[in-house]
């Protein structure tokens, strides 16, 4: 398969974020970090406390463990040594408070870091909070930009400071870690919502005053999460973020099964959903990212909305939307634009339910908006629309749809179909979709599987968690009920693959792999695919694959983190793709 990695992006990845070699800690510094890490680990083993509070302590231990795991690379400067030791000291202090039954941080004001345990992989993930003395219930969710020197240690060090809060701040700010640098895709997307859920469990949050904000990579995340979950936010501010993969990464001539799945995350395709949520799009006049912001306005213009210039800015009376351009400004927020954005957002609070909802999607992964629930599509990765008009009492007066096979309005199905197996929300593929929720990797009997080992290494480095792994002989009924199963091996080496082989649309025997009318030698090829698990159709089964992109893409740019293999593929033993594609709406070839 021809690589789609652009040479300029590769050069940037090799050079690194700072252009300088990372710091190499001395043996003495490493011994000091190891000693404190071991001390905190010993204390953690003795703690008996609420799991949520334990996560608030464990995150400090994890930060040290992870930076030491990647010590050849992630001590980006000498300051990371002192920061790591400070993080461990903070973890020990919290552990002592918890052991005494007097944790102080749950009522702490100012700036602090807390954590939660992710359902995806059981890992502990951090988030940062800014809490004023008197909160008004508003929560601003902030998505950070790409940070080439970001890890758990630097995230904690940056946010656990005594810097005073602005005197006029009365709302809480949640700054998301997002599993480092993935533009809030895949498990990074799940991280945003798990962090919000953790905050809601611990603090008073007005659900009608949740604002989403992001800049640069965070702006890309704000565009896609703002437009794909338009009923969750009181307002969205997206600054200088990419919106179109092909334009940003300069890609062309992609295979059809890759090109189709760009519709999952390309925010420009979801532009009409700005009808449902107040939105600020921003970029600096001299920023190279300006075409991405301009493309969103152009997409809305093509949808029939009209914008008029207001100096460098663009305004409209047809949407609750504002496009701001910072005069003579590069890749940062101009203060005047920031002030105008904040005034606009404040004027949109609290969140209001529109009487006219126009919702666009390309996948059942993103299928809900103000009482609309798209349960099945006629064709995935093609534009689907639902338009609903209600009266003042909420009664539906008008309903229009396009490319929608099954639909519910306000919890009641208004269009249904009889199908024993259908692509539905969270069970629509492609392969990478399995890693947004809880998953369990199942290793075959015999030698270690190279594809599994590669996935373990890459997930730990780039998604900041350990994948769960069990032997094929150890998988239980509870595992099948609780997790997507990621099966590695073949029918002769993995008993679960053998058990399922006859119940999949692609036939895999000891000798052959049969895909429709094409037959491949099983000795020279392997099968990769995703499918509803026949043992539990509410969960996926995946064969022989972690994420279908890897280290090269993670190091290059988050725009490249799109699916490479669709729903299924036949690979040569060296990884060369000989066949790949997408299943139909009934999971058929």
Describe this structure as you would to a colleague:
The structure is a single chain. The chain has 589 residues and is α/β, with parallel strands linked by helices. It has 3 domains: 100-348, Alpha/Beta hydrolase fold, catalytic domain (Rossmann fold, 3-Layer(aba) Sandwich), CATH 3.40.50.1820; 356-415, no CATH class; 431-581, 2-Layer Sandwich (Chitobiase, domain 2), CATH 3.30.379. The strands form 5 sheets. A 10-stranded mixed sheet has the order 1-2-4-3-5-6-7-10-9-8, sandwiched between helices. A 7-stranded mixed sheet has the order 19-18-20-25-24-26-27. A 4-stranded antiparallel sheet has the order 12-13-16-17, with no helix packed on it. Strand 18 (439-443), helix 13 and strand 19 (468-471) form a beta-alpha-beta unit. The two termini are 21 Å apart. Mean pLDDT is 95; it is low at 1-17.
Helix share bin:
25-40%
- Per CATH, the superfamily of the largest domain is Alpha/Beta hydrolase fold, catalytic domain
Strand order of the largest sheet: 1-2-4-3-5-6-7-10-9-8
Strand content: 15-25%
Beta strand count: 27
The total of helices stands at 16
Give the overall shape, derived from the CA principal axes.
globular
Number of domains: 3
Q: How would a crystallographer describe the biggest sheet? A: 10 strands, mixed
CATH class of the largest domain: Alpha Beta
CATH topology of the largest domain: Rossmann fold
How far apart the termini lie comes to 21 Å
Radius of gyration: 24 Å
Average pLDDT, rounded to a whole number, is 95
Structural class comes to alpha/beta
CATH architecture of the largest domain, please? 3-Layer(aba) Sandwich
Contiguous uncertain segments of 5+ residues: 1-17
């Amino acid at each position: 398969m021809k690589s789609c990695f652009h040479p300029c992006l590769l050069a940037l990845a090799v050079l690194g974020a700072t252009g300088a070699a990372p710091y190499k800690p001395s043996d003495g510094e490493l011994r000091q970090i190891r000693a404190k890490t071991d001390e905190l680990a010993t204390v953690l083993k003795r703690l008996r406390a609420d799991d949520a509070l334990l996560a608030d302590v464990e995150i400090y231990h994890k930060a040290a463990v992870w930076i030491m795991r990647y010590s050849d690379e992630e001590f980006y400067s000498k300051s990371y040594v002192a920061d790591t030791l400070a993080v461990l000291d903070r973890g020990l202090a919290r552990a002592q408070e918890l052991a005494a039954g007097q944790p102080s941080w749950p009522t702490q004001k100012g700036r602090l870091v807390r954590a939660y345990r992710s359902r995806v992989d059981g890992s502990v993930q951090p988030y940062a909070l800014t809490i004023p003395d008197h909160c008004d219930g508003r929560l601003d969710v902030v998505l950070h930009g790409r940070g080439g020197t970001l890890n758990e240690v630097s995230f904690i060090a940056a946010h656990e400071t005594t810097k005073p809060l602005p005197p006029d701040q009365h709302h809480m700010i949640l700054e998301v870690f997002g599993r480092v640098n993935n533009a809030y895709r895949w498990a990074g997307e799940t991280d945003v919502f798990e962090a919000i859920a953790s905050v809601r469990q611990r603090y008073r949050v007005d659900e009608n005053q949740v604002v989403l904000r992001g800049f640069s990579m965070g702006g890309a995340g704000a565009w896609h999460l703002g437009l794909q979950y338009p009923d969750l936010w009181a307002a969205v501010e997206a600054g200088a973020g990419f919106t179109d993969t092909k334009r940003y990464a300069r890609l062309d001539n992609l295979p059809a099964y890759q090109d189709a799945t760009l519709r999952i995350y390309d925010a420009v395709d979801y532009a009409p959903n700005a009808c449902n949520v107040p939105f600020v799009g921003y970029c600096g006049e001299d920023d190279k990212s300006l075409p991405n912001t301009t493309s969103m306005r152009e997409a809305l213009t093509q949808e029939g909305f009209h914008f008029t210039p207001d100096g460098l800015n663009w305004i409209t009376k047809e949407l609750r939307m504002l496009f701001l351009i910072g005069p003579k400004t590069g890749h940062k927020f101009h203060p005047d634009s920031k002030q105008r954005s904040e005034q606009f957002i404040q004027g949109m609070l609290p969140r209001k339910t529109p009487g006219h909802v126009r919702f666009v999607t390309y996948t059942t992964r993103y299928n809900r908006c103000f009482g609309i629930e798209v349960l099945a599509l006629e064709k995935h990765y093609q534009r689907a629309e639902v338009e609903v008009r209600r009266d003042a009492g909420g009664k539906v007066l008008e309903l229009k749809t396009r490319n929608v096979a099954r639909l519910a309005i306000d919890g009641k199905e208004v269009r249904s179909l009889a199908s024993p197996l259908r692509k539905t929300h969270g069970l629509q593929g492609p392969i990478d979709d399995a890693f947004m929720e809880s998953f369990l990797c199942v290793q075959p009997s015999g030698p270690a599987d190279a594809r599994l080992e590669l996935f373990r290494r890459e997930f730990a480095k780039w998604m900041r968690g350990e994948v769960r792994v069990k032997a094929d002989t150890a998988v239980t009924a509870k595992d099948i009920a609780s997790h997507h199963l990621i099966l590695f091996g073949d029918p002769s080496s993995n008993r679960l693959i053998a058990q399922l082989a006859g119940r999949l649309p692609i036939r895999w025997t000891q000798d052959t792999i049969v895909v429709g009318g094409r037959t491949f030698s099983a000795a020279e090829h392997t099968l990769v695919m995703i499918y509803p698990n026949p043992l539990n159709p509410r969960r996926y089964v995946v064969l022989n694959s972690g994420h279908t992109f890897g280290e090269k893409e993670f190091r290059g740019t988050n725009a490249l983190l799109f699916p490479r293999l669709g729903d299924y593929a036949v690979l040569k033993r060296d990884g060369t793709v000989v066949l790949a594609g997408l299943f139909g709406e009934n999971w058929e070839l």
